[in-house]
């Protein structure tokens, strides 16, 4: 799979989250607060989200790295960096 730009990764994440939480307002996210809390994404939805991201972006996130995805920008940074892994 070709390397995705940050904007492409962001778009994939937003699309995947929107399938789980269609009412999600990404413009209202406070960057210093955990995005899952703000969008009310529970553990089950989070697992589904990661599966969808893996399918669409080809990036796997091991469970030990979940804490690295707390803030929305951190998640984008992580996914961008993991493409090469």
UniProtKB/TrEMBL annotation:
Signal peptide: none annotated. Gene3D superfamilies: ACP-like (1.10.1200.10). InterPro entries: ACP-like_sf, PP-bd_ACP. PROSITE patterns: CARRIER. Residues 7-83 form the Carrier domain. This is Acyl carrier protein. It comes from Azoarcus taiwanensis.
């Amino acid at each position: 799979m070709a390397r995705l730009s940050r904007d492409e990764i962001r778009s994939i994440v937003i699309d995947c989250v929107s399938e789980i939480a269609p009412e999600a307002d990404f413009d209202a996210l406070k960057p210093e607060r955990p995005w899952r809390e703000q969008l009310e994404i529970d553990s089950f939805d989070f697992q589904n989200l990661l599966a969808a991201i893996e399918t669409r972006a080809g990036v796997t996130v091991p469970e030990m790295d979940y804490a690295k995805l707390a803030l929305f920008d951190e998640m984008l940074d992580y996914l961008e960096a993991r493409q090469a892994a």
